[in-house]
Design brief:
By secondary structure, the chain is mostly helical. Helix content is about 20%, strand content about 5%. A two-stranded antiparallel ribbon has the order 1-2. The protein starts with 17 loop residues before the first helix and ends in a 28-residue tail after the last strand.
């Protein structure tokens, strides 16, 4: 399974280094979507961590089931509705079931450093 191993920022929210972003962009240019056969990233890389780069990472993660789009909570989940009758409480809306677990611990839209390079 393909893996991205360059850093595109860290958990502290620091600005990613241009050469790290450029490496991820090149990797996304060479990796092909198995459904369409097209590269995940366009024909030019610039080292800018903008919407195109983040979008390409998200599509890559979704197509390889490495991470999935966060699911917003169901509005009103767990709130009692209806009127109580004969001393019984009103009905409770069920909570939305959790999304299927991704097969890894990747953060959606981010590329983390590899455990192999010792920089975790």
């Amino acid at each position: 399974m393909p893996m991205l191993s360059a850093s595109v920022g860290d958990a502290a929210g620091t600005k990613p280094k241009t050469h790290d972003v450029a490496l991820v962009q090149v990797l996304l240019m060479t990796a092909k979507d198995p459904k369409t056969g097209k590269p995940y990233f366009g024909p030019h890389y610039d080292g800018t961590n903008g919407p195109a780069t983040i979008g390409a990472i998200k599509v890559f993660q979704e197509s390889w089931k490495l991470a999935s789009r966060p699911t917003p909570p169901l509005s009103g989940a767990g709130i009692k509705v209806g009127t109580p009758t004969a001393g019984k409480p009103g009905a409770t809306l069920p909570a939305r079931p959790p999304p299927p677990a991704a097969s890894s611990t990747e953060k959606y839209g981010r590329s983390e450093r590899s455990a192999l390079d010792g920089t975790l």
